[in-house]
Structures are given as structure tokens and as C-alpha cells.
Amino acid sequence: MTYQFAFNGKVISYTLKRSSRRSIGFKVDHHGLTVTAPERASLSYIEQALAAKARWIMKALDKVQADQLDTLAPIVWQDGTVFPYLGKDCRLHLVKTLTTRNRFTHTAGELILQTISADTVSVAKAMRSWLKQQAADILLSRLADQAETMKLTYTKAALSNATQRWGSCSAKRHIRLNWRLILTDRPLMDYVIIHELAHLVELNHSHRFWAIVETWHPDWREARQKLNALGTRLFTLFPE
To answer: How far apart are CA 203 and CA 184, in angstroms?
Structure first.
């Protein structure tokens, strides 16, 4: 199960596992923080152990993030490039054509791009355009459907190119969704959409706000943890 604890104003999510071990163990890797505790250890006891280990945990998480950044670079668009789309790997296949208009055909696990120019710059431009169009079609439609389900109204919706935020909702009831969400799976998209719609009721992160989110997305803690883990990778691989 996923839980959270706060340290120096920062909220850290962790996965709690129970085992027959007698002491509490901590593991930090690219998946985040995992805490393994004895079956009978109470949450308050675990939180005390987390508080005592908090500085080490923060340093370890920062190091993992730094290591990930060191090994990542923006994606290179060419024939055979594998990229995430709707939460699954998709392979790009380039086909040269004499027509100037790019044509896309998406099937399970493959995207065929018919193009007159197969150089990496031209393909990158075409791919960004296609991904953003898919994001506009899928994300904004999903937002409208979810708003209707939740019986909420917003005044404006658009895509965002923010490099650190997945979404936003303003006091004017304007909602923006990061186009890179099209790279993730449906539960993660839905979490961000529900999160921003909940701000139409509570423009904060109070207990009332999270209660709304949980009503419509009971697994929001797990979704948020996955997004936090994916963020560094996706924002680095897919810069503007």
C-alpha cells in the first residue's frame, strides 16, 4: 500500500510492505521509497522510524533523480524509435512518400509515419504535432466526460506544455492539462483530470479536496506516486 509522510515541508510517498523481519528496512530506487516493516508494527512506529531516517531518505531520492537525469537525453526520432503512448511502448516506422502531407497510421504497438522527409528534425516536428493532436482529442474529451459525471463546469480547457506540472486549475475555472499525459495510461490521465476538476470545488489541497478526489479515483495515491516517478523521465525525453 502507498502512504505519505512530510519532511521539511515536502510530502514523500512510499510503498509499505509487511514481512516477517524484526526491524524496519528502507529501500530507495527508481521506483521511489519502499519501507518493509514487521507485520505487527504500527503506522505511528513506522512514522517515527521514517522521521529518524528522513535526511538519509531525502539524499537517496535526490541521488536517484540526479542519476536518472544523467542517463536521459531527449528522444531521437528515427525509424525504429520506441516511445511511450497511452502507457505502452510504441515503435515508430518511417515510410518515404512523394506527397508532402504526413500520414499517420497507428496500430497496436506501432505507428507508421509516411513522410517526404525522414531527417530527425522533420520527424521530431511531425511527431510532436501528432502527439499534441492526440492529446487534444483524447484528454479534452475525457475531461468533458468526467466533468459531466461529476456535475461540475469549467469555463475553459486547453493543453499545457509545462515542464513540471501535469495540470492546473485557476480561480477563473480554467483547466490546463499537460499534453505529455498522452504518453501515460488511462488511470494516470484520469487522476490528473479528476484532480483538476476537484479544484473547481476546493481550490486548495485540504482534506475536503482529497476526499473529492478519492470519491472518483480511490487509487489516487498510487497514481500520484507513479506520475512522480514518470515525471523526470517524460519531461526529459519529451522537451518542447
So the answer is: 25
